[in-house]
Amino acid sequence: MTEASYRLTHQDDRSSLILSGDWHLGKTPDGETLTKNIPATTKHLDLITKELGRWDSSLAVSLLEVARWSKLQHVTFNTQNAPQGLQQLIRLATDVPAYEGTSKGKANSLRETLYSKLSIIGHELGLTLTFIGDVTLALLQWARGKAKTRREDVFYFIHQAGPKALAIVTLISILVGMILAYLGSVQLRQLGAQVYVANLVSLGMVREMGALMTAVIMAGRTGAAYAAQLGTMQVNDEIDALKVMGIRNVQFLVLPRLLALIFVMPLLCIYADIIGMAGGALIAANMDVSFAQYILQTQDAVDWVDISTGIVKSVFFGVLIAIAGCQAGLQCGRNSNAVGMAATNAVVRAIVYLVVADAAFNILYDKLGI
Length: 370
Hints:
Layout: E1 5-11, E2 14-23, H1 31-35, E3 44-55, H2 57-72, E4 76-78, H3 84-95, H4 110-143, H5 151-161, H6 166-191, H7 197-235, H8 238-244, H9 249-285, H10 291-301, H11 304-330, H12 336-368
Parallel strand pairs: 2-3, 3-4
Antiparallel strand pairs: 1-2
């Protein structure tokens, strides 16, 4: 067994880390030792293992420290000449970034932190606006019949987002209707106006809760699924393969999912409205309000303008959910951790979009007197 050793060579902005001997646990230099003599002018660091003998995981640990040092110093660390097993260990360790706590060695100033946060927000906003522009152009191409969007894909995603979501939409909608009726009954009972619980439930469902709760359900169910599907395709290089074949991702992957939600969301919204009113009727029956009275009050309280306000909301909510999910999936990284983060980001973004859009619609309806 020969002793583990190393040496450094340097030329211009390129350095070479040459390993020799047998590298075993307890007898290998650590990463700090390997990097302390690397010149500051180094931009490229090559790993040379022609003289390397036997080695174990301690070598991978030392080289992992070298890889992290290279990343911090903006140095390209080249391990292509290393043994295949060693390359796989380093790649596996560096694919998932290490967790960084909130405490750091040197605290950034408030100005630097604020600038960094604003830069990230500005960058994300730019990417989102660019993606929305691409989707708009793809929709125009589809309207003219020139988009590479398969009809079979649209029907497949309609089936996935529509009939398979009825169970959870039914459960949530009937509970929301019952909650609205119960909360209203607490006050209306004091005035002897229990019959008006039908007005409260019907207007609350058709104007607000039907569209919003259905959208939240679809954001968590369908938006996350879109992000995970496209993220997995990104990891498997399938999206790159489509680009090589000259197929635009937005037309082939995003547009079918977007069209499916645009078609499904109004139908699910109407279904949620009906189920929510039925849930309210169950509570109203315990308040000595007959089913006939409940139906008559609902007919008097709700008109087609009220129903259309919720349907218009649901269409826009479907667009926002598709944009959030597909954008997160297409911008996914190349490892399993990135797929999980993409699904999480899709749900968070979609819910933020929904709340902001719902507030904007309510303000608009108020100004228009609807």
